Fold this protein.
Amino acid sequence: MEAYYTVHIYVLVGGGSMSTQDFILLWASKCTYPAKHVVPENSHDYYQIVYILSGEGEISIKDLTYNVNVNELYIIEPNIKHSIMASKVKSLNTVEIKFNCYNSNHVKILNQLAPLVENIEHSVRNAFFNIIEEVKNPDIYSESIITIILNEIIAYLTRSLHRKQIQSLKNITKVNSISNNESIDALDKVVQYITKEYHRDIKLNDLAEMIYLSPVYFCSIFKEKFGISPIQYLQNVRLENAKRMLRDTDFSITQIAEKCGFKSIHYFSRFFKNHEGVTP
């Protein structure tokens, strides 16, 4: 696979001198990853936030790979292996912040939200655009201002999470009503959908909305029941069906990848090898 140097259009490297009690800013940048560029798997002892501005690509965090979409936010926790890859035909444009967090409440929120926050609200988008302006035209105040904006972003995300949790609690009665009246376990309903529709472009929000829960709360109760996250469960179903097709059909590897919901042959091959130890 070819790799190109990442183009950091604007970069501000924090020195830690302008920091709050909660955060120490290490690095902020607006980045462009050219088509085919790969940031190899790595890990570090600080948080990294990646906000998707435009373009196409994949982000791998732990053992999951996400096909990125505009207006998504990825939170990479300390010491978690991850990689970034632009698509073969389009560049990937991001705003990225690297920082240390010393507030235990903020750490808890960040870890709850990680790794993916979808459908970012307007106020958070504006905050990232303000960071771009600071790194484009830095001065002696920029590090302090970006740190304040980072606090603002975490506050917005915390408020959004809190509102969703409240809504989830309100919806639990509705879920229980469905279960009691129709003898249907809500999570089993989700599993049945995954088993039948695994070939579709299924997102976490889609599954959570099926049973009227927020994505965060839905992930929590799903993992409590099945031992893995909903997306991991979906990927496992796709893998098992891919293995069946490889064994029982004459479909090409590319066809099998498409039929099983893997968006690229590259990702399918890498995912397969990581789990089975051999290529498809």
Notes: The chain has nine helices and ten strands.
